[in-house]
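Box 3.1 — From sequence to structure: sn-glycerol-3-phosphate-binding periplasmic protein UgpB
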Amino acid sequence: MISKLKAAVAGLALMASPALAVDLEFYFPVAVGGAAANTIEELTNEYIAANPGVNIDAIYAGSYQDTVAKALTAARGGNAPQLSVILSVDMYTLFDEDLIHAFDDFATTDEDKAWLKSFYPSFMENSMIDGKTYGIPFQRSTPVLYYNKEAFAEAGLTDAPATWEEMKDYAGKLTKKDDAGNVTQWGVRIPSSGFPYWLFQGLTTSNGATLVTDNGTKTNFDDPKVVEALEYLVSLSKDGVMAPGIIEWGATPKAFFEGQTAMMWTSTGNLTNVRKNAPFDFGVAMLPANKRRGAPTGGGNFYLFKGGSDEETKAAFDFIKWISQPTQAAKWSIATGYVAPSPATWDSKEMQDYAADFPPALVARDQLEHAVAELSTYENQRVTRIFNDALHAAITGDKSAADALAEAQAKADAVLKAYR
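Predicted structure (token representation):
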């Protein structure tokens, strides 16, 4: 779906936008759940109304994968969008192909420089290369644990599990079967399709492992702590508290709503969706710990593409700066459940009122204290595909966790060797 958001060229800009009329293309991944498309359209229209010299075509490009593919194709063909929201983990790919600007080159005033430093450090780990900022956090997230409070009460449980051991124990108490022995409610559901590496990183991080080092050029897939995390994930199905086989990402919230699982791991970006559609009282908690608390960050950054005129690039920079300010960022976070990316946004009256009314919104923010960068390397899509394939091989029982991860490490080494 393509939405053309046009405003007549008239008068002077009201908000420090360029004096000359400019047309911008903005690629946005609409397939992110919640009220994303409507909110982006409202915010874009608001900016256009305040900046009569700027016209923006908001091009809703599909999934994250669809969006980066379309942006890369357009850029390689000399027709790049001026700006786009793309996964933070694709930063190395965009940088390696020399497709994006460093925001530092445009943040020349003290105000602009302060803006670049205003975001949570954990989000900036997937936004900077060699000390320069190439991505601006926008629809950022962490995975969190959602749980059905009614199912918990029925099983005699109150608080969410705090550790791996507790989660497996709770999941056993929450798993229900009918008279024929068929499972009617699983204890926990951790999706292994869509973004399997991302949720699995919640286990590797809490087990003290680091998946990537050396500025995105070295993976540690065969680390014994990673193997242990995968063995734990597989054991949830073997021990009968999670459905066997590959668990679908997109179907997980619906399974939660319908009582097919009492706990689920998914993005905080699903928070508004769960709030609107869960027919029961639910809770939100940080991911359970083993050696430590921990979770990866995730989601998308704004990127500023090369190839546009000076006027277009400056206008795109101005729009990105505007939409990431506390008032706009609060509106986005409240509408979608994504984590507001700066402390200043959380200090705004809008976010304080929202958090007071809906305390679960604070869980992902508080988890940032324990968060690490999402798995991101050069040739990221190839490397994550290798890793996902290894996870699937272990989950389906085709290979042991150790063998699958050893093979993945060898393949990733072959891909990344040239970048070291």
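Summary of the box: The longest strand covers residues 22-28.
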